[in-house]
Design brief:
With 253 residues, the protein is α/β, with parallel strands linked by helices. Helix content is 39%, strand content 14%. The chain is built from 9 helices and 7 strands; from the N terminus they run βαβαβαβαβααβααβα.
Length: 253
């Protein structure tokens, strides 16, 4: 791992109350840089991030969760990252587990690592995950496993790690600027033949942790099913969808 540059990216929005705790929990000496991209927050997220000595980039207007990630990955690649870890700065995910996300990638076992909040139903619900989110998460993940040919416990985590090659290969620039960006990203990774692994992380839901409401969760669920449908049709060569098309500087798919 010492020979590879590790950069953590944090897509931030109104994370002033939690970003310091998230950063402080990252084990010392594990990562080389931390990049924060602020998506036009209304609080003191930017001030605190700069006080912490982080690399901070600010969107003048809100671009959405997916739009924020696009900037995160552009900046990480430009700064020479070999492994990129994405963790939300809202303290919902335990950043102490970053070494366990990095190690399987650094050792060449996987290309993508996911931090799964669903090791058991009891732990997920005890951590505060709403019951309707747990049920929808399990149902969507079952569908995705079937159509993507995987066997993961969760596809919908915001705690992820990738190799540089993944970000240089899949056309994530074509993805949505909204929450379904995450689903599109994994569909593209599977389509390109990358290896997906996972490690359990405890679920932490509380007032300051960002979480989409029931309406937006429903829209996200339907959008996820649409991505699965596109993937299936693309694999059968019955469709030709933008999210599976190569972009400039990406390798041929």
């Amino acid at each position: 791992m010492a020979k590879q540059k590790i950069i953590v990216v944090m897509p931030a929005y109104n994370a002033g109350k939690t970003i310091a705790k998230t950063v402080q929990d990252i084990p010392s000496g594990v990562v080389d840089e931390i990049i924060v991209v602020d998506d036009a927050s209304h609080d003191n997220t930017v001030t605190i991030a700069r006080e912490l000595g982080l690399q901070v980039f600010v969107h003048e207007k809100n671009l959405g969760y997916g739009g924020n990630q696009k900037t995160c990955y552009q900046k990480a690649l430009a700064r020479g990252a070999d492994i990129i870890v994405m963790v939300h700065p809202d303290y919902q995910y335990d950043s102490r587990l970053i070494p366990y996300m990095i190690k399987p990638i650094a050792e060449g076992l996987y290309d993508v690592m996911l931090g799964s909040r669903i090791r058991t139903r009891a732990e997920a619900l005890a951590g505060g995950m709403p019951l309707y989110k747990y049920i929808s998460n399990r149902a969507l993940t079952l569908v995705e496993n079937i159509f993507f040919g995987q066997n993961l416990s969760e596809f919908h985590t915001g705690f992820r790690a990738y190799t540089r090659k993944v970000l240089e290969t899949i056309p994530w620039q074509n993805n949505s600027d909204n929450f379904v960006f995450d689903t599109e990203f994994l569909a593209e990774a599977v389509y390109c033949g990358f290896r997906l692994g996972e490690t359990p992380v405890p679920a932490r839901y509380f007032k300051e942790a960002s979480s989409i409401n029931f309406l937006h969760s429903t829209i996200y669920g339907l959008s996820t099913l649409a991505v699965v449908g596109k993937f299936f049709l693309q694999k059968l060569r019955l469709g030709n969808f933008k999210i599976f098309k190569k972009v400039a500087n990406n390798q041929k798919m």
